[in-house]
Write a structure and sequence with these properties.
This protein is mostly beta strands. 13% of the residues lie in helices and 41% in strands.
């Protein structure tokens, strides 16, 4: 009798493991990764820019043009595309168009923002890029952080290079319901597309 009970327990355990494995098999990597609070991979064609939009009222020392869209053809998969013209701000040490995201429900417990950036060095004659995030609630700014020069070492076949940036903020107790994100030009006349992918908050 005891042997039969043990066999039944083992059988039920195997069934449970298989059920969990099958249920999680179709999940996206970013959803399954521990610690990820929110992420964007731009694979859904119907979602467009996945809620990101430009906010010209927040630009800083930027006099060119900027356009935000989703691009699935340049690299064969979906990415956020920022067509940018820094040629009028080549002498600026911080030329900054900004984009925004609003969260509903708000995010809590976030510490690190990560994203991939892809750009073509031949589209400029010098300078480099930096990045910045600002997180806020309805009442006030909660935290901000910026990067040093963005380094992109991974070479892609079409002349683009790729880098990964991590921006960390301190612990904040209030929920975050919106954020500003920017790719800022430092003494660059870059004119062309910049691609952003695999954005996430941990």
């Amino acid at each position: 009798m005891k042997k039969n009970i043990v066999k039944i327990q083992v059988f039920l355990l195997v069934i449970a493991v298989l059920t969990v494995s099958c249920a999680s098999g179709g999940a996206k990597t970013e959803q399954a990764a521990p610690g990820i609070k929110y992420s964007w991979d731009f694979e859904d064609a119907g979602a467009g820019t996945a809620g990101w939009f430009l906010v010209p009222d927040e630009y800083w020392d930027f006099h060119g043009t900027a356009e935000l869209s989703r691009d699935a053809s340049t690299f064969g998969d979906g990415k956020l595309r920022l067509d940018i013209d820094f040629s009028k701000d080549a002498g600026s040490e911080w030329s900054e168009p900004k984009m925004k995201m609003e969260f509903n429900p708000p995010l809590e417990g976030i510490r690190t923002f990560t994203f991939d950036i892809l750009f073509n060095p031949s589209f400029s004659k010098g300078g480099h890029f930096k990045s910045k995030i600002i997180v806020s609630n309805d009442k006030k700014q909660l935290a901000d952080n910026g990067s040093d020069a963005i380094v992109a070492l991974d070479e892609l076949p079409n002349g683009f290079v790729k880098g990964t940036v991590k921006l960390r903020i301190g612990s904040i107790s209030s929920p975050v319901n919106n954020m500003l994100f920017s790719i800022a030009g430092y003494k660059t006349n870059y004119k062309g597309p910049i691609f952003i992918d695999n954005m996430s908050w941990e």
